[in-house]
Amino acid sequence: MNNSKHFNVTIRVWRQSGPDEQGRMVPYEVKDISPDMSFLEMIDVLNENLIKKNEQPITVESDCREGICGCCGLVVNGEVHGPDEHSTVCQLHMRRFKDGDIITVEPWRVRSFPIIKDLAVDRSALDRIIQAGGYISVNTGAAPDANSIPVNKDNAEEAMDSAACIGCGACVAACPNGAAMLFTGAKISQLALLPQGEPEKQTRALNMVAAMDCEKFGNCSNEYECEAVCPKDIKVSNIARMNREFMLANLFSKH
Amino acid sequence: MKLDAQIPSGPIEKKWDSHKFNTKLVNPNNKRKFDILVVGTGLAGASAAASLGELGYNVKVFCLQDTPRRAHSIAAQGGINAAKNYPNDGDSVWRLFHDTIKGGDYRAREANVYRLAQISNQIIDHCAAIGVPFGREYGGLLSTRSFGGAQVSRTFYTRGQTGQQLLLGAYSAMMRQAAAGTVKIYPRREMADIVISNGRARGITVRNLVTGELENYSGHAVLLCTGGYANVFYLSTNAALCNVSAAWAAYKKGAGLANPCFTQIHPTCIPRSGEHQSKLTLMSESLRNDGRIWVPKTKGDKRHANEIPEGERDYFLERRYPAFGNLVPRDIASRASKAMIDEGRGVGPTGLSVYLDFRDSIKRKGEDKIREEYGNLFDMYHQITDENGYKVPMRIYPASHYTMGGLWVDYNLMTTVPGLFALGEANFSDHGANRLGASALMQGLADGFFVIPATIGGYLGGSKFEPVNATAAEFKAGESAVKNKLNKLLAIKGKKTPTEFHRQLGNVMWNDCGMGRTETTLKKALKKIPEIREEFWTNLALPGTSMEMNQTLEKAFKVADFLEFSELLVKDALERKESCGAHFREESVTPEGEARRDDANFSHAAVWEYKGEGKEPALNKEPLVFENIKIAERNYK
User: Fold this and answer.
1) Cβ contacts (< 8 Å) between B185 and chain A: which residues?
2) Both B218 and B298 in a single domain?
């Protein structure tokens, strides 16, 4: 670590002062970058300089900076969450770039995620999908002993693979149709794979798919872009399971 | 300030049950007439909102993130404790209670900790029922692992993402109530003040972080589930948005703040790489199950780790604490690492780290097994350091992580302000002077799912409420105070950024009030902090206005509070002239160099009371009474 020299880059950033304002790409030079810096720390450096010049810093959202909260999300050089596989943009480090690079930075561009300011978007549509059925209806205090319901280990592991979703919206941003099917499919799969989720699986599939459509997310056309950019490596098989659950629910649900 | 902990009488095993029986209930049809304001949507806030919504209360929930699913509970990795005794290794409620009190170095309240241990099992049951995909054995039953400070295996987990899965579970339960109409969610709101009317908490003023507008909400009770203040050290494992502002506002409105100097330094974090560093990343304590911590025996040994033969390695935790070895509590592990580094035996380019080595467990169990258990942690380590933890030992260094201190609460989780409650890390109650690993998740969910639904009825059902609405004079006064503060910040037009001030404060806190504290360093800090604060209020650079999305303003608002709060933290550290748990006064050590408590003078919670701007705070004490546990010197040897 720390044996390579500091370097300079130019970043071209999407600036937009409000939801209804005209946006544009603005170039900034960022000097003396350490390869050990994270990408967001590089933007921190730029923002600190802008603040000192009494200019508006770039609005960019992040919180945990360790790839688990799902808050950050940028398109770097056209790639959702940047060039690294299965990671969020806060986990991207400057050692991936070299002196003189020109890096473009844009927000998620999705009809269902309106831009609030600069690189910050409104992803509340994803919360509304969960609200439509992404839960198991058990009140606090009513549960039996946790070991009274054994769960097949393979199913538990597969449920965990689906549950790993951090709700960043990268799958939607990468999809040419702006579909939220990987996000929705992952939650439907997680709960369908567990015996605890079984009783509600039909209504859950119907309601969550309806909410997804209601938020004007697009449909899947098997591009596999979502799986490629998912920081948690969630597989498109979740979409297949969602479609199966949805179809079975349509055929057999009493609701 | 009157400190009545409201601890129920009777034997400790019966206190919680008898308290629930003796607490007033609110008629099911009347519950919807009560408005409960919940601030924060971590484990404590989300679970409280869900369980109160299920009961039929009218709940409003506020969070500063874009969605309530992001609070920093999400980053907890290793697990959640419960006294299930599934592995048949001798665990019990009593043992979890005992370990937690001992782990906290006998500075927590017995009755609260016993209740926590009792509730721990219900949490696992409930979380399994709402779809948390816990790790399981081939027979389909739940799997457990070991954590620091315990000799039983009682930590339940979902890979290295236990906090995430528990938070998403609590979030989903809350979203179910949002669908049912009992919970209304207000994201992108930062609480700016608490409104007191006739001596009771009756509402909050929040800043809408998108429009900048101040909004008032009235209610019958306010629940602060706003987390800890580890970011007072600037660099910590906390998320960037974590702050002390809500707790500080409560303090200024009359809530006692207890034991602020109890701050936990976590031993296994990825070392910092330079000045630009914005946060430190934790590596789960669970790694200490299989990783061995060591430094070279000789000072300044610059050889590659893999070239240092077995005989020249010092596995200092195993050497100093043979009974617990690498699984000693966090405060002890952190201090032992610091001692090695201070001796000049630290490793890595800066010398500010020690090795966490998986060579032996990979040999014993195979790389695949290690990958299955900790794969995501190894990946994370690789992403940050560009090093492969399977091939070379990881390098770790202690970092500020969790704060045991917080708002003083009674057995009902109510602060000294009637109607104002504090849950989870925001309160002070359960971890004493040091929290054991996997106990934060347990406490957050215990408070939210099981304690508050039972105790809030006692407050709501036991008092008459005059109508208050959000246009009342108290709200207008609070709102204009917040407006003034924002305008004052914007009017400074200086040269230094909020982050620069924060970093400056953090350096003082880490160097003078960090892992080791002395009267000299603390007094030095008490001199430096007001100087930084003064410069902050005369030389702050802050572009933009308050009526827009303005992240610099948000940051400045938080730093302003840290600059006041930090002084109280240091005062508390200075006042507590003993070492206990994570609070290590170098003047108070045993001949072996371990923390030496002074039970005769400091067996109490130090509760600070605000006396007005520029006035010295008053110190009140809640004596700690141990009727069920024999206090002793903590021994992990």
Assistant:
1) 127
2) no
